[in-house]
Specification:
alpha/beta; 19 strands
Length: 405
């Protein structure tokens, strides 16, 4: 019968007999747990030698002796010689030191588990009798997928002593484009402060006790201003909550994430930023438009449509090798186009409006810089939309019909 325990090995001696590839794989895990690792082996493999050098691990360049176990809490025998490994296991048995015997796991007093971590939750899988590492790995893979999907109940049921904030980019909309880190943080969250756009469908998957605060902004209508959002984030974190600020796209691409980070730091609140798939690249992609393409465009210029036409934007529009992408620019586009044309931008420059990217209602409206404002008005183009200007926006560049045109 095997009992699975979580061992705290911080600062405690773990002795490795052997310095080959098996030892290297295992040593990494004990380094992560901040154990006091001692390696005893006549020679080291390249990977183990690198770990010893990088982490200052003590190495005794000789065969293992029983006395090497004097201060050990755990031993790992992986010398490549089954007889030596068995002898190490026997020494450990006499000394009441747990031992992982890599030559014959069924005869070791301890076994390595296939494990994954999600925040402060660690899940491990091992076998009892009849050691079968492949089966354990297969079961572990299933459990890891559940943990990474965000569907596991990872949220703490008690208030943490110190709160924290994660600014999470949720991408252009589909939940399955969220990063694994984003899904894990959402599963652990006590409070989620959510935008109007992005992968808002993930909110339906959260712990029912998690508090969801909607602060989404629409053109001309801000339910909560930025100062109010900053205050909400800090206030919940100071109350000891794990706060996720769920933002559309990427937090640092016109998402005002920098302001929220600054607010947290000024308040002494721990904060991290999790990148998201930005709509500047992904939404054109969903319509079959590459923002760069060999032989067509080798650079991208990204602007906020409310910022107007700068000298840098004019240079981008005049360069046939540059794609200009406009976010939040539908309402301001007519003025932007008029200004650009008046300053010499090419009238025949291809333009594409990609509305509601990745949704069932996605559509693409194509025109040229000279006709795009009228075309957008006649087609009643509305936000959210990404506007692409440049040769990559012409119809049929890659495929006869856009993926979701």
């Amino acid at each position: 019968m095997t009992i699975i325990l979580g061992l705290g090995l911080i600062g405690r001696r773990v002795v490795f007999a052997g310095g080959g590839a098996v030892a290297a794989r295992r040593i990494r895990r004990f380094i992560d747990e901040r154990a006091d690792v001692l390696v005893v082996a006549p020679e080291l493999g390249a990977e183990t030698a690198q770990l010893v050098a990088e982490h200052g691990i003590r190495w005794l360049p000789r065969r293992i002796a029983e006395s090497d176990l004097d201060e050990a809490w755990l031993a790992h025998a992986a010398t490549g010689d089954a007889a030596v490994d068995a002898r190490v296991a026997a020494w450990c048995e006499q000394r009441r030191v747990f031992c992982v015997n890599s030559s014959d796991g069924a005869h070791g007093s301890a076994r390595m588990a296939a494990s994954s971590r999600a925040g402060d939750v660690v899940v491990g899988v091992t076998s009892d009798t009849g050691v079968d590492p492949r089966r354990a790995a297969a079961v572990h893979a299933v459990l890891r997928e559940v943990m990474e999907s965000g569907s596991a109940p990872l949220r703490r049921r008690r208030t943490a002593a110190a709160g924290s904030v994660a600014l999470v980019g949720s991408g252009p909309g589909p939940v399955d484009l969220l990063t694994l880190r984003a899904r894990r943080l959402l599963a652990e969250a006590d409070v989620v402060i959510a935008d109007r756009l992005g992968a808002t469908g993930v909110l339906d998957e959260l712990d029912p006790d998690a508090v969801i605060v909607h602060v989404g902004k629409a053109p001309g209508r801000h339910a909560v201003d930025q100062d109010g959002i900053n205050d909400l984030i800090v206030r919940h974190a100071r109350a000891g909550k794990r706060v996720v600020r769920l933002k559309g796209g990427d937090p640092f691409v016109f998402g005002r994430g920098g302001e929220e980070v600054s607010a947290c730091l000024a308040a002494g609140v721990a904060v991290e930023v999790v990148p998201g798939v930005t709509s500047a690249v992904s939404v054109p992609l969903s319509a079959g438009i590459p923002v760069t393409h060999r032989g067509t465009a080798s650079a991208m210029h990204l602007i906020n449509g409310q910022s107007g036409v700068t000298a840098a934007t004019m240079a981008a529009l005049a360069d046939p090798a540059v794609t200009t992408v406009v976010l939040m620019g539908v309402g301001a586009f007519a003025g932007l186009a008029r200004d650009a044309l008046g300053r010499g931008a090419p009238a025949d420059l291809p333009v594409a409006f990609v509305e509601r990217g990745f949704s069932d209602d996605q559509r693409t409206v194509r025109a040229t810089l000279a006709t795009a404002a009228v075309a957008a008005r006649e087609a009643a183009v509305r936000n959210p939309a990404v506007i692409v200007l440049g040769r990559v926006a012409r119809a049929g560049l890659l495929i006869p019909a856009a993926i979701r045109a």
